[in-house]
Design a protein that fits this description.
The chain is an alpha+beta fold and about 375 residues long. The protein is built from 8 helices and 9 strands. The chain folds into 3 domains: about 15-185; about 190-255, SH3 type barrels (Roll), CATH 2.30.30; about 255-355, Alpha-Beta Plaits.
């Protein structure tokens, strides 16, 4: 081997000895890239299998861990590369920066993972993928918000401890400043506790149709938050109602009705008074045999009024359905059948009429004869 080759090899060995950290950093970044790519392949192959399992937990964890784990791989790879650079250059300042940032990053990624798990589990419950049918959307959203708040608060306190900030002082400050904060944010707190009352008392849930006789509030509940509720009115406008309103007004929840009521008054002519008893009996029989009428509820067909131009009877009954659109169709069918019953007996529904008695003055010397003139007013 020539002298020049020996010198070159010695020079290269010296370079590797002095600058070997570059190779280490390159290999570490390359391994990080390979691990991130391998994790992505495993996720794409395994996640569909977890989705077909029929439970809400395994696919939720698999979905939630994917992005935080990718970020963790890069965080650890880059932070270790920074450590190598710090060791090679003996820069202790880099250690002082990288170590707390790495700890903070791990805390943030773990909190992100937990929040993603909560979000995915919440979506699975709402979509009905859970085998627990008793949990409704309102309860799911409430529990989801509580768990998210717990994760965020805990992560914040752990992060403060990581940077050497004592949480006892913060808790003490919170106790001293709590009164001032409560006074300045009384409306916000009122809405918060109003939302808590809605979650606990549950006068309505997501998807319910509600209305308030005290306020101009009516529509379908779309979202229940800690500050306000979003209600979609029947003309499709979103209505945002602060939660403290629900602690001071009455709320009707038609969605929880067991039946819908049909109540109407129908007039028959006085001329058909002799047929009225049979008409009432046939109308009641029709209602009792109607497939959409709940005969276990109150059912009445009674004469209730001698009106100026009609004999009025009341029809009072309940349908089996609570669906408003279906109810309208059933009520229409009942009304048409009542008309058929009245007409089948040769009677007619009454409308306003006036009977005028006029004397006949044409016959002198005789008692005035009275004739009846009927003037019909429609």
């Amino acid at each position: 081997m020539s002298q020049e080759m020996i010198v070159w090899l010695q020079h290269q060995m010296s370079f590797l000895h002095n600058q070997g950290w570059i190779v280490q950093v390159f290999l570490l970044v390359f391994m990080t890239l390979v691990l991130a790519y391998a994790e992505s392949i495993v996720y794409r192959k395994m996640y569909p299998k977890f989705q077909r399992s029929g439970t809400v937990w395994d696919d939720s964890v698999a979905y939630a861990i994917h992005k935080p784990l990718q970020a963790l791989i890069w965080l650890m790879g880059l932070s270790l590369a920074a450590d190598i650079v710090a060791i090679s250059g003996k820069h202790t300042a880099i250690f002082n920066i990288v170590k707390p940032l790495r700890s903070l990053g791990i805390i943030i990624l773990f909190a992100w993972f937990l929040l993603r798990v909560i979000d995915k589990v919440e979506q699975n419950f709402v979509k009905g993928r859970s085998r627990v049918d008793a949990i409704d959307k309102t309860t799911v959203y409430a529990l989801g918000k509580l768990f998210k708040a717990a994760v965020l608060i805990t992560s914040f306190l752990v992060a403060l401890q990581t940077f050497g900030i004592g949480i006892s002082g913060i808790l003490a400050f919170g106790g001293i400043g709590g009164a001032a904060v409560a006074f300045s944010a009384k409306d916000l707190l009122a809405n918060f506790f109003g939302g808590l009352v809605v979650y606990l008392d549950r006068p309505f849930a997501v998807g319910d149709w509600i209305r308030s006789p005290d306020r101009n509030i009516e529509g379908t509940v779309e979202y229940i938050g800690w500050r306000s509720c979003r209600i979609r009115t029947f003309d499709k406008r979103p209505l945002y109602v602060p939660n403290n309103v629900f602690t001071n007004v009455s709320i009707e929840n038609p969605s929880r009705m067991t039946n819908r009521r049909i109540k109407t008054f129908i007039g028959v002519r006085y001329h058909d008074a002799g047929k009225l008893a049979v008409i009432l009996q046939d109308v009641e029989n029709m209602l009792r045999h109607h497939p959409e009428i709940d005969t276990n509820q109150t059912l009445m067909v009674n004469l209730v009024e001698f009106a100026p131009s009609s004999l009025n009877f009341m029809v009072y009954t309940f349908t089996k359905t609570t669906n408003w659109v279906r109810f309208q169709a059933i009520q229409q069918d009942v009304f048409l059948k009542i008309i058929d019953v009245i007409l089948s007996h040769g009677a007619e529904c009454a409308f306003p009429t006036t009977t005028v008695h006029m004397s006949d003055p044409t016959k002198i010397g005789k008692l005035y004869k009275t004739e009846t003139l009927t003037v019909e007013e429609s």
